[in-house]
peptidoglycan glycosyltransferase (Phreatobacter oligotrophus), 684 residues
Amino acid sequence: MGRRRLLALAAGGLVLAGAGGLVALHRAGEGPDGAATPYSREVVDRNGRLLRPFQTDDDMWRFPGAVAEVDPLFLKMLTAFEDRRFAHHPGVDPLALVRATGQWLRQGRIVSGGSTLSMQVARLIDKREDGRSLSVKLREIARAVRLERELGKPRMLDLYLSLAPYGGNVEGIRAASLAYFGKEPRRLSPGEAALLVAIPQSPEARRPDRHPEAARRARDRVLERMLLAGVLKPEQVASGKAERVPVARRPMPTFAWHAANEAIAAEPARRVHRMAFDRTAQEALETLLRDRVRAQGARLSGALIAIDHRSGEVIARIGAADPLDTERQGAVDMTRAVRSPGSTLKPFIYAMAYEAGLAHPETLIEDRPSRFGTYAPANFDRGYQGTVPTRVALQMSLNVPAVALLEAVGPQRFFSRLEQAGIRPQLPRGEVPGLAVGLGGVGLRLADLAALYAGLARGGEMPALVERLGAPQMAGRPVTDEAAAWHVGDILTEAPAPDAAITGRLAYKTGTSYGFRDAWAVGFDGRRTIAVWVGRPDGSSVPGITGRTAAAPILFDAFARLGAPAAMPPRPSSAPALTHAQLPAPLRRFGPSREEATDTRDLKIAFPPDGVRVDLGALRGAMDPLVVHTKGGRPPFTVLLDGRPAGRFGAQRQVNVQPDGPGFTTLSVVDGEGRSASVTVRVE
C-alpha cells in the first residue's frame, strides 16, 4: 500500500473514531461549554471597570473571556501561531491531522497532536483528560467537533480566552494580562501579545515570574513567526523584542476593599457586582487618603465618602487609609464605625432654628460664659466673642450659641428629626438626648454625616444613597426646609478655609471629638458631597489632632482631585436677602440674657483623663508634647509633672508640656487661688 494511501486511511480512522466519541458524549449528557467552570467574582464600577476580583473556590484567578474585549492584534497572532485554518475547519484541521498521523506512523508514537484551538478548548474543559495517548486525542477530536457545531467559532474562541493556562493559579488571557502587565487585555503591545500567545504552550516552564529567560525566548520565537506570517512588520518585531519581560506578578486590583467585601457578602451567588463607584475617583482618593494619613503619624487611619448628591450615587467609599496595614487596624471599616461627630452637627441645629423662625443668619446672639442648668459649655479655645450674628457664630463654630439654639429647638426634637431623616444617632444605654448632643455627645457614622450634608446640598431633602446598582433603595426624606438649607450652606461657604486653600468654593464644617479622638471634615459644592474622618480605630486619643488641621486639608484636596468645583445653587425665593435692620424685631436678637458662668469653682483637668494611656511616640524615639486642658479654677495656672514645675498658662486653659519619657506620670495643675487637681497617665 502506498504511503499516501496509508496516511489517508489513518486520518479517516481518526475522524470516524471522533464520530463514535461524539455519540458517547451525547449519551453521557455532558455540558458542551464548561458551564460548571467557576469564574472569579468581580466587583466593578459604574462603567464596568474592575475594582476588586476574588479568587474562585479552587483558588484560581479565572475570568470569562470575550473576543470583543481583547486586542485584535493578539487574536491575529494567536490564530496565526496556533491554528492558521481556525476560521475554516469544523473543529479539526484535516491537514494538521494528516501530518500528525504520518508522524505517528513513522515514529510509532504521537509526536504532535495537530491540535486546533477547538481541540485545546475540549481538553481544557475536561481537565481530567491528560496525556498524549490515542484515546485521549480521539476524545478531544470528538468533543471539538461537537463544540464547534453547537457553539460556533466566536464562542469557541471565547472559551479558549477564558481557560488557557498561564502558570500557577492564573487562567485565561484577562487574568494573565492583569497578573503580568497590571492592565486589561484590550490594548496590548506586540511584545505583550506575543508573550501571552507563547505561555499556554508550556505554562509552568514559561512563567515570566519564575522563568523570565525562557519566557523571553518563547516570546521572541512567536514574534519571528509573526513576521514570516505577515502579521507583524519588522519594526513591530524589533520593538516587541526590546520590551522588558515582567519578572513578577502584579497584585490584582483591590479598590473599594470594604465595600467590595460587603457586596460579596450581601449576594454571594452573584458573579459580577456593579457598584455606583467611579474607579478613577476611587483610585485617586484612596491614594490621597493613604498618603496624607501616613504623613500624620503612626497608628492613624482615615475614611472618606464621596457622593454625587444630585443622583444620590456614592462616587467613592474608603473604609481605611490602608486596609492591609494591621498597625493602623485597616480591616476596620471606619465609614460604618459609630464615633462622636464633634461639632459637625451644629449646622443642623442652626437649620432647625432658622426653619422654626427662632433665628435668622443676621440675628444677634451672645457668646459669653453661660450656664444651661448644670451644663456650662465653653469654646474650644476657651475664649469668647461677645455679641455676634448667628452667621458668624456658625462660621466660627462657637459652642455657647449652638447650645443656646439647641435648647430653644429642643434636644429631643432635634434628635427625632435626625431619626426621621433616616439617620440612626446612638446614645449610651439609658440616656435621653440632652444639650451635649449638639457638641458631639452622640454616636454617628461617617456615612450618616455624608448623607446629612448631602441633604443640605439638595435643599434639605436627604438623598437615597446608591452604592450597589440594581439594589432596592429607600426614598429620600427631608432634614430641613429649602430656605434653612440654603442659608446654612451659604454660611458654611464663607467658613475660613485651611491654610493654602481658597475660601468660598466649598460649604464645609469641621469637628473634633472630646479627648482628641476623632477629626472630621464634611463639605459640598454644587454637585458633590465629601466626608472625611481621621483618627485611631481603637478610639484612643491623638493629642493635638483637630478636624481643621487633620481632616479639612484632605477634604479640600479630595474636591480638587475630582475636578473643578460645581457652582452652588442660586438663592431660592423662600430665602430673601435681609440685613439685620430689616429683620422683624423678635428676630434681631436671640433669647434673654443668661446667667454668666463664673467658672472659678471645681478645678479639673479636662484632658488627659485620669488613668488613660497617651501615645506620644515615646517608644518610637521622637516624643510629642502632651496637651493639657483645664476646666474651672481661676488663672493663672501652673502645671507640674511628678511634682516638678513644667509650665504656666492663663485664660486660654491649654498648654503643651514635655514628659521626661515613657511610663506613668502624675500631672498636677494649681490655679491662682491655690486649688489643685491631679491625674495619673501612662505615657507611651
